[in-house]
Fold this sequence. Notes:
- It is a single chain.
- The chain is an alpha/beta fold.
- It folds into 2 domains: 10-207 and 394-410, Glycogen Phosphorylase B (Rossmann fold); 220-392, 3-Layer(aba) Sandwich (Rossmann fold), CATH 3.40.50.2000.
- Helix content is 40%, strand content 17%.
- The protein is built from 15 helices and 14 strands.
- The protein has helices spanning 24-38, 89-107, 122-135, 149-153, 161-176, 185-193, 220-225, 246-252, 272-281, 298-303, 325-331, 343-351, 362-374, 376-392, 395-410; strands at 10-14, 42-48, 66-71, 74-79, 114-119, 139-143, 179-182, 201-203, 232-237, 261-266, 287-290, 307-311, 336-339, 354-356.
- The strands form 2 sheets. It has an 8-stranded mixed β-sheet, sandwiched between helices. Strands 11-10-9-12-13-14 form a 6-stranded parallel β-sheet, sandwiched between helices.
- Strand 9 (232-237), helix 8 (246-252) and strand 10 form a beta-alpha-beta unit.
- Helix 1 packs across helix 15 (395-410) and helix 11 crosses helix 14 (376-392).
Amino acid sequence: MSPGTEKPLKILFITDNFPPEVNAPATRTYEHCKEWVKRGAEITIITCVPNFPHGKVYAGYRNRLYQTEYRDGMKVIRVWSYISANKGFAKRVLDYVSFAHSAFWAGLFQKCDIIVATSPQFFTTWAGWALSKTKRRPWIFELRDLWPESIKTVGAMKQGKAIEWLESIELGLYRSCDKVVAVTDAFKENLISRGIAPEKIEVVTNGSNTEFFYPRNKDGEIMKRYGLEGKFVVGYIGTHGMAHSLDFIVRSLKNVEDPDIRFLFIGDGAMKEKIVAIAKELELSNALFLDPISKEEVPRYLSCLDVSLAPLKKSDTFKTVIPSKIFEASAMRKPTLLGVEGQAQAIIETYGAGLCFEPENEKDFLEKLYRLKNDASLYSKAQEGCSELAKAFDRKRLAAKMYDVLAAAAAGENLTKGQTER
């Protein structure tokens, strides 16, 4: 229940991704909302039919105008959108805009005390803003990505009038919402430097679901199926996107001289075809590429890894990012080989939960890889660090923190300038 009232808090949550999709936004939203249901909240999710990252509707679903299902005490409304694979800028923008439009119309008919809209995708927050103005309800901007800055970083758009226009809208949305819930402290610092009031921003990082991800023996069936027995397995499980620098990783594998090291890439995305082609061109024998797996299967495959790989392109923009996979790996005592600078690097180094290499620096990447494999004492200490990191970033505690932010905003506490009592 929300503070000071006996009635349940009615939350309308707008998200482009939701289970059975398994990317980070879907997982965070689902796990947070499950905890909020336990606190008595009434949750309505507005999302699209599951299709990420292939742009193909999952079995058992159809891309209808409007359909409703129930999952773990949540009402899930799936609306029509133009569906596109996670590649091709123009088509993806049409996908995002169409979802925002459909989400707005569906949201008009849902009762709520507060609206949450999460990015990515950026246009989802437009629906949150429009519904807040129409329904006269407070709204929360959950900031998971600095968009449009991130699309400049991966080269999808160049600085120009279009980017300037989008950035002006971005700042307007931050000012309009009742609270920004950022997933990193660096995001908060970025917004403050651009004129957003510090008191308007709360930080709720991603975290570890220790009930789902926990230490376990390696899955023997998977190890045998893919010939991984007796090997030191380095794995990447997640979206193969433009930001993740997997082309650099795959090219570096040609120079991995230790025959006992195997690399496992699981997932799909805009760069999947390219990195598979690079591996074929280089005639790599130490890399295996698998299709995406369900959320339920992730712990089984993660159990088979000795090291979890988490790279991004070298960019100042990505110094603000904390890959969610470091929390899942840590909960299973799997040290991370991190190719990200900034806040993510600080977390790994603070807890000693792995090693960090300079993004897109092959020499440093190989050096840190060999250290994790060959230094048994270092590896053991990293496993202990993983346990401490998982405890510090417990998903339940973080979900409770965000719920308190929503409850306060719904009750009209600490309203920002320009908002009225509702």
